[in-house]
Amino acid sequence: LAQAAWNKEAFEAKSLDAAFGVIGAGKPAESGDVVITAPDIAENGAVVPVGVVSNIPKTEYIAIMIEKNPNMLAASFTIPDGTVAEVQTRVKMGQTSDVYAVVKADGKFYMSKKEVKVTLGGCGG
Amino acid sequence: MASPMRIRAAAKDGVTEVRVLMSHVMETGQRKDSSGAVIPAHFITELTAKHNDKVVLSAEFGPSVSTNPYLAFKFNGGAKGDKVAVTWVDNKGETRTDEVQIA
Amino acid sequence: MTLHSSFARAEKAAEALYDMPKFGNVSLLHMTDCHAQLLPIYFREPNVNLGVGGMVGNAPHIVGERFLKHFGIKPGSIEAHAFTYLDFVEAAKTYGKVGGFAHLSTLVKKMKASRPGALLLDGGDTWQGSGTALWTNAQDMVDACKLLGVDVMTLHWESSYGADRVKEIEEKDFAGQIDIVAQNVKTTDFEDPVFKPYVIKNINGVPVAIVGQAFPYTPIANPRWQTPDWSFGIQEQGMQEAVNAARAEGAQVVVVLSHNGMDVDLKLASRVTGIDAIFGGHTHDGMPAPTVVENAGGKTLVTNAGSNGKFLGVMDFDVKNGKVVDFRYKLLPVLANLLPADPEMAAFIDKTRAPFLEKLTEKLAVTEGLLYRRGNFNGSWDQLIVDALIAEKDAELAFSPGFRWGTSLLPGDTITMEHLLDQTAITYPWTTLTEMSGEMIKTVLEDVADNLFNPDPYYQQGGDMVRVGGLQYTCDPTATMGKRIDNMMLKGKRIEPGKTYKVAGWAPVSEEAKDSGPAVWDVVANYLRSQKVVTQRALNLPTLKGMDGNPGVAV
Ligand SMILES: [Mn+2]
Ligand SMILES: [Mn+2]
Hints:
- The structure holds three protein chains of three kinds.
- Chain A has two helices and eight strands; from the N terminus they run ααββββββββ.
- By secondary structure, chain A is mainly beta.
- In chain A, a hairpin with a 6-residue loop joins strand 4 and strand 5 (73-78).
- The model of chain A has no long low-confidence stretch (mean pLDDT 93).
- In chain B, the strands form two sheets. Chain B has a four-stranded antiparallel beta sheet with strand order 4-3-6-7, with no helix packed on it. In chain B, strands 1-2-5 form a three-stranded antiparallel beta sheet, with no helix packed on it.
- The mean pLDDT of chain B is 96.
- By secondary structure, chain B is mainly beta.
- Chain B has strands spanning 6-12, 15-21, 44-51, 54-61, 70-76, 83-90, 95-101.
- Chain C is α/β, with parallel strands linked by helices.
- Chain C folds into two domains: 12-42 and 96-350, Metallo-dependent phosphatases (Purple Acid Phosphatase, chain A, domain 2); 361-544, 5'-nucleotidase,  domain 2, CATH 3.90.780.
- In chain C, the strands form six sheets. In chain C, strands 4-3-2-1-13-14 form a six-stranded mixed beta sheet. In chain C, strands 6-7-9-10-12-11 form a six-stranded mixed beta sheet, covered by helices on one side. In chain C, strands 18-23-16-19 form a four-stranded mixed beta sheet, with helices on both faces.
- Chain C is globular, with a radius of gyration of 22 Å.
- Chain C starts with 6 loop residues before the first helix and ends in an 11-residue tail after the last strand.
- The A-C interface holds A 37, 39-41, 43-44, 47, 49, 96, 117, 119-125 and C 33, 125, 156-157, 188, 217, 219-222, 224, 231-234, 237, 261, 282-284, 401-405, 443-444, 447-448, 450-451, 456, 458-459, 461-464, 466, 481, 507-509.
- Bound molecules: manganese (II) ion (2 copies).
- Residues 125, 156-157, 215, 259, 282 of chain C line the site of one manganese (II) ion (MN).
- Chain B: Residues 7-100 form the Sulphur oxidation protein SoxZ domain.
């Protein structure tokens, strides 16, 4: 594990377009075959479960981005042959934001997004 | 030294599901302590998972990943008793490897 | 006919009310959101229960006369009183108090006698809402539910006693008698189930699955530190998997015992297949008839059974050849004067209250006006609480959470400590005094308004709007997040975003706010003692925009 391999530029990107650019995604096409599972409302903004499934054949890479976070790229995954194109992790969210999943499959990039609300809380029936 | 990971790996219908809970502060570098000084960034940057000796997943993390990171993924194959090993490295060069047998 | 029948006529009507012929072969009784009310009480239904988007004009977002028309209820009848706020004070004097476990118990026994094998389902919000529940750490309600014969329950406010206490009750008190079900509660580490997702009970030879759905937003609406290792959420996929698993296990009837709130249940019913009925709670909507929702797999009935022990839902299914072919449903009002108290339950209640009687019966003040809570924006009880907070904490304005529980008092009633605790008894009762910028005040109002008026029910948390004392504003429920609240004024002056204001409040959910100030009941009790007589006060209500003709509001 060589630390130099870590894509510093991508993790320090300050806009979605910049992050897309650094990972070589350009303007990825929105695809219904990239499925994000995340809560509609975060129970805890510090621990928001996000899962991504890509139903596109030859998926080789999955990235999770949070538009309103200071570092929008949260994590990226390289999917070797024989590994299912499905990952789950948990991320921090400072405020309500779209969560993006970007997928590279057979050399092309695709994406989808889902809004996760971060609320102040304290109400009830 | 960093605390051990908790790893669960289970094979079912020809697919092995791996779930990992790491123990790490995942400090963003953007928080301040009570005296107003910036708390330096300290987070896992890279992770590799191997089934026996084959890499089945590699990942890069940024500071947006939650404290004590969680990761779940699946790979084809894997049999009861096989080894699954997970290694992470953080931005300070610390590293940790833990392994389990597939249940 | 004049507005209200005499009591004699009411008694006659009662025979018809509770004479419900048995139908089919599988019966389920449903109570929900009793909020620990062991004794009969008054409870006024809301005159504001707005629906937006696709919910306009649909159950449960209908009030008053339009409610009666929608459900075909005769004006002036017992049902009209039970289900609506219309002529509340006069009708309450005629028909008397509602609920109370001793009276509920009599009704449960009557229904179980006519429906052998019937189960009693409890939708949660059972352990919280009274002084005695709080002081006994929920033990009075736990014992009362065992005595009442509850078979299966799910959770919301129960969790505010802390995860350890809930598990202790499940494993010790409830063992072998009451099942807690909740498919959506998982551990925060490996997402392992915390409770059984469902149970299958055999009713007259028919396997019936009861799937549990705890309140999805517990760690947001209530303090997360009380259940730090549990996650909740709606978990649609988990629900579908639980339903499929129950069917695969042989269940011929699958019902969901839900604490989602009715709008969330309606959406869930349209997207998950294989559920015969969802018995819902949390939003405290007393619905006389189920809403029938079509989905890809067939039809699902969605009910909601009100609150405060006021109603008992009775569902009769006719199950033939392994499936539900027909049903009958009624939501029976529990009228204490028309149902004799069950002696065993009455004795239990007396015994359990005895050590606390002196504290409970302390007379704080007399109210000149009607005191109630329920309504989207304010109730007179809440107005009293915010007035008290402003006075006692020397604040410019006050916030009080939009809780839907809390009993009503009639004009001339004495306010006792027990009544005050009915509005305030929670495990995080601390009062707060905060310097808030005008911008932050707007953020708070917008945030809560979106929880209430988001057109997608999955983004709703099912409470009411935060109550504001001293603050005037306009609210457009149809606008988008961040644009609903406008023209915020304090004492005739515009709230300035950059200026700070002294804001009192209570029930803080953050862990840092633990023990932030004296308990709200002590603060309000001081105020009431000094007032002696509580005058009828005008409700501080927002000016509504875009709601003309909405059947969810009557003023
Ligand atoms: Mn409730
Ligand atoms: Mn509730």
